[in-house]
Specification:
The complex is a heterodimer of chains A (122) and B (107). Chain A has 122 residues and is mainly β. Helix content of chain A is 0%, strand content 50%. The chains are: A mainly beta (122), B mainly beta (107).
Chain lengths: 122, 107
């Protein structure tokens, strides 16, 4: 069974930094592109970033470009999202999601983890 | 960027009734289109991809159709567990985008 387990969320001050992680199991992690998708409280879904199966290619939403960095550790089946210069509008549940193939720029998200909550507030 | 508009915003129906949800894209995405279900406190779940293909384990009361810019998602007979928010998503061009969601609520 495919499992994705996010961790690392929490409360951070505006302008601060945080790294969230996703531990993957139940599939050959290095075969699939992965993404981060976020959901602000009571709002809809927003794709944040994607990474190819090898980690050699990445893509970002304009809203986070230059502030967030996606990476992966295929040896240990982990996905990461480093977040810098955080703003109040980055407050959201951050989900890691597996693509059905290797489409890091145009993914279909299946499945999703349960999410980790990031709150940016003073 | 492609924008997706879902309608209606809320659908009030009774168990056993048919639910029909729509999603329109601002430009063609061919059939690179998906539908997700999200229940309160849970992560979204993929139901439909390729506009009309059901994901693994999804019951056949869920179906999707459409191509280009106009897509339809149908639940043939609502079960109590189907009351949730449904999102459409295009993956025909980057960045992938979601619609704003349709809430299917119990009437």
């Amino acid at each position: 069974e495919v499992q994705l387990l996010e961790s690392g969320g929490g409360l951070v001050q505006p302008g601060g930094s945080l790294t969230v992680s996703c531990a993957a199991s139940g599939f050959t992690f290095s075969d699939y592109a992965m993404s981060w998708v976020r959901q602000a409280p009571g709002k809809g879904l927003e794709w944040v970033s994607g990474i190819s199966n090898s980690g050699g290619s990445t893509s970002y939403a304009d809203s986070v470009k230059g502030r967030f960095t996606i990476s992966r550790d295929n040896s240990n089946s982990f996905l990461y999202l480093q977040m810098h210069s955080l703003r109040a509008e980055d407050t959201a549940m951050y989900y890691c999601a597996k693509d059905r193939g290797n489409n890091y720029q145009t993914p279909r998200f299946d499945p999703w983890g349960q999410g980790t909550l990031v709150t940016v507030s003073s | 960027e492609i924008v997706l508009t879902q309608s209606p915003g809320t659908l009030s129906l009774s168990p056993g009734e048919r639910a029909t949800l729509s999603c329109r894209a601002t430009q063609s995405v061919s059939n690179y289109f998906a539908w997700y279900q999200q229940k309160p406190g849970q992560a979204p779940r993929l139901l439909i991809y390729g506009a009309s293909s059901r994901a693994t384990g999804i019951p056949d009361r869920f179906s999707g159709s459409g191509s280009g810019t106009d897509f339809i998602f149908t639940i043939s007979r609502l079960e109590p567990e189907d009351f949730a928010v449904y999102y459409c998503q295009q993956y025909g061009s980057s960045p992938p985008k979601f619609g704003q969601g349709t809430k299917v609520e119990i009437k």
